Amino acid sequence: MLSPRTSPTRDIVSLDGLWRFALDTRAGADPWTSRLTSSLEAPVPASYNDLFVDAEIRDHVGVAWYQRDVRVPRGWAGERVVLRFGSVTHAAQVYVDDRLVAEHVGGYTPFEADLTGIVRPGAEFRLTVGVDNRLTNETIPPGTVTTGPDGRERQSYLHDFYNYAGISRPVRLCSTPQTFVEDVTVVTGRDGAAGVVDYRVETGGETAEATAVRVRAVDEAGRTVAEAYGPEGTFRIEDVTLWQPGAAYLYDLVVELLTEDRAGAGELVDSYTQPFGVRTVEVRGTRFLINGEPFYFTGFGKHEDTPVRGKGHDDAYLVHDFQLMEWTGANSFRTSHYPYAEEVLDFADRHGIVVVDETAAVGLNLGVMGGLTGAAPTPTFAPENFGGVTGEVHAQHLRELIERDKNHPSVVMWCLANEPASNEDGAREYFEPLVELARKLDPTRPLTYAAVMFATPQNDLIGDLFDVLSINRYYGWYLFTGDLATAEQYLEEDLRGWARRFGKPVMMSEYGADTQPGLHSVWDTPWSEEYQSDYLAMYHRVFDRLPEFVGEHVWNFADFQTSNGIHRVDGNKKGVFTRDRRPKTAAFSLRRRWRGLDRRKPGLADGRKPGLADGREPGATTDY
């Protein structure tokens, strides 16, 4: 699905701002048929949970209603009118006046409603959106809704981050011509010093077949460097400037629909510009290659989580977070545990940050809940749990993710799930069709999944299906708490086991320790800032001893909110930054390590690991 962009033939009106707001318990019957009478207003984009002081709103399970009045620009006569939502968490019903115009399930991918013929240029309409936050075993992520003795619904779920809900990403009213560019796909390669670009353009509208397609590649100086005709084809960019980690370079693919198929002779019907970067991604043996060069991931698992706004997209935090990642020396991050806002990936494209793009499939592991409660776990992939409809829903989420993000040069790998029960019966039957689907939709990017602690090199059932082994481990925190010496032995044995069995690149997709800012100790005291730094240093010693190792993503970039629980105090505190982005001691430790790594030579075939700029041996750092 194309991201909204203005062009000579397209306009956009932002619908962000304050909307009328009410819970379904207070909105009355059929609230889309009239003006909401609630005195509450909610900002868009934002989660609604933390905005108000009313506990009923924060704890609400079910539908909440948003409403505003919208005027269609009078100049859009004869145009196609499209309403686009960046995301609604987790399901949406959209009404224009009294008419249902769209429904969507899935809280982290966009959807549209074609309003052509429903609304009139120059006229106003009432826009009402029902936002349903409920999670079940037929949603991604999954959850369970029960009804308490007081008649209220209660939500439980299997992931360790707060179930924020609302219209959390931008809403836009867009115009396009009646015949329009519907989709663009760009795949890049290299031939010596030249870039090779395969493109495909899909068109929509009644007269789409009568239009011709012209594409032009335009460099950052505004020069046309290649041109081609037809709905699909290949062109070359001589002396191409590559998109590289830390050195982003973007071209624009200007797609034009013309009334005739003679170069420059037709009348312009529609124009859409798709930015793209020329780069290649490959897994070769135990190395991860970008543009043919070994790449070593340094960075974080993150969350879209900020005070007050919850998961609402915020450009100020976007800029500041990227600044902090650059300050630490990070070159990458994982979109844990859902697709992030399109604006985040656009920013990563422009600034050369590498992204592992993850679906919202977190919580496909009933063994985790058994481990927390002591109750005997029920089989995760049993038909009554996640072995039935869930797989079909997961596949649809994967389609929407790849459709949305396929043209981002920053995205170098798809992550199909976080901590699934890959050690349980039924895991292979569940994941094999998803892997086949992902490779069919995008054969150009490697695939991974983040392995849970219960999955070991001995019992994992799906590792051979994927290209990179991403491992989540917490030796020294959940296991061998406070005993880093023992934790180091078990960690190294574990990681070497994955490398021996599968012969694939291995990276650490999560490792970290909860840390209370301001707590200090001269001993190995869990929750202290010193312990977090020493914990990370121990992991880094192990990483530097493994020739198959290709990256390290600390959990987490910043503290984030979770559901109520006695093992959490005001959220998850594994961030190296606080929730309001103040650095803990570990942030400075990471900065010393990552800014010292020689990233020109990571993952070399001879087994050498990254060197340090001052000549010290890897793993020998003692200043943290």
From TrEMBL:
Belongs to the glycosyl hydrolase 2 family. Its EC number is 3.2.1.31. This is Beta-glucuronidase. InterPro entries: Beta-gal/glucu_dom_sf, Galactose-bd-like_sf, GH, Glyco_hydro_2, Glyco_hydro_2_cat, Glyco_hydro_2_CS, Glyco_hydro_2_N, Ig-like_fold. NCBIfam families: PRK10150.1. Residues 599-617 have a biased composition (Basic and acidic residues). Pfam families: Glyco_hydro_2 (PF00703), Glyco_hydro_2_C (PF02836), Glyco_hydro_2_N (PF02837). Residues 281-596 form the Glycoside hydrolase family 2 catalytic domain. SUPFAM superfamilies: (Trans)glycosidases, beta-Galactosidase/glucuronidase domain, Galactose-binding domain-like. The gene is uidA. Residues 13-177 form the Glycosyl hydrolases family 2 sugar binding domain. The keyword Lyase does not apply.
